[in-house]
Amino acid sequence: MPAMASKTISVCVAFFLIFVLLSQNTHSKSTHDQHDPFKFIQHLEGCHKGQNVSGLQELKKYLTKFGYLNYDHSKHANDEEFDDILESAIKSYQKSYHLKVTGTLDTTTGKQMMMPRCGVPDVVNGTRKGSKKHNHKHKSIHGVAHYEFFFPGPRRWSKTHLTYRFSSSVNQVPGTQNVRSICAQAFQRWAQVTSFTFEEVPATSAADITIGFHRGNHGDGSAFDGPRGTFAHANPPRGGNFHYDADERWSSNPGPNEVDLESVAVHEIGHLLGLNHNPDLPDAIMYPYFNYGSIKRNLHRDDIDGIRALYGLQ
């Protein structure tokens, strides 16, 4: 084969490979941007009791996942009927987030539900914020507090020196190369307002807390849902697991479609130490929803009051 022809073929092959790689990258970005596990809620806006609408089964799963709905094996748990139990669950959700309590999936409620968020339930063990059992406002020297503990009863660590390690089922997640130093900073934010000290230990060592990146069903009963939806979750004290969703776009300096590693770490460490979600204060670290591109790393006064009250430091 003439040298010129061989060179031309090589150039063509090189351009073809570049084209394929760019196409795959573009497709990956497109898939990431289009994927939204909460998008179905938009198509249900306006639904109300008495209706039978395709997609209501998914809404029931959403409200069950975050603790607002429990059918107790009712025949309506897996159907598309908007019944009394679903209406009551929506009202409880609306009360929690200080929305107009209609029991209808109105536009404002739907918009709130579609925001990306932490995967930890707002309601634990059937205790709903706003119910008589859980209608409490703590008092602090700074006024009315809104922080919440896990139920039943506050869960606490019995020691103040906690070890943590990193162990993931997914390797080489883009944007996470500095996650160890980032998590160290996040732990330090809580250490500064408590008696806790935190120490990273090798991945092969036993530790109080394990941090890792996972995707989909990863063995803890709380499967991740891909980009958007829920971005992380963690256990209350002595559970010790903090999981990031590996399918998110993570960053230490987030752009519009990226999630800030440290902001999420500070929130999830709050769960690890015993604080539950605080739906009252969007500025609090323990508020469950979080926007892409946002940075929220500093503890709110309410977060500090909550953790200090939980461990008797006030």
Automatic annotation (TrEMBL):
Q: Keyword Amino-acid biosynthesis on this protein?
A: no
Record's SMART domains? ZnMc (SM00235)
Ranges for domain Peptidase metallopeptidase: 153-313
- Positions annotated to bind Zn(2+) 1: 218, 220, 233, 243
**Residue ranges annotated as motif Cysteine switch:** 116-123
- Residues recorded as binding Ca(2+) 3, renumbered to this chain, are 225-226, 245, 248
Query: Where does this protein hold Zn(2+) 2?
Result: 118, 267, 271, 277, 286
Q: What is this protein called?
A: Peptidase metallopeptidase domain-containing protein
